[in-house]
Amino acid sequence: MPYETTWSERGVHWRYWGEVTAAETRVADAEFYGDPRADHALFQLIDLREVTRLDFSPHDQELTAAIDGAASLSTPAVRVAFIVPDERFDEALRIYLERINQTTWSARTFTDPQAAQDWCERCGEDPFTERRRLSLRGSGV
User: Fold this and answer.
1) pTM for the whole thing?
2) Is 132 exposed, middle or buried (0-12, 13-18, 19+ CB in 10 A)?
């Protein structure tokens, strides 16, 4: 498997490399959900900077978002930060981001690892409040 998992006190950090399939990301997710630390996790930091190919079809994105969406019922304040090298994975993450941001979880992509970490560590901020603030900013309010 082309990934490694590191736990912190507040969440999990995954680093992927090489060619990554959706099936492999589901194995990592299953390990996460099977770990008792997941019950108290506040973020998932997913580093894709060393990935050469991400095979994450629209169906795979829908399925992963559905699984995470179900988990959002018991762990409502999780932030999912994808660290990407550039826009090459935008389409492979688009549907997941749209769907998961309709739950109590909040997800974003970052090119700067420190910005991703900082965003994840602001775990006390309610994702709904954050989304409302961002949408108001976008509407000129």
Assistant:
1) 0.85
2) exposed
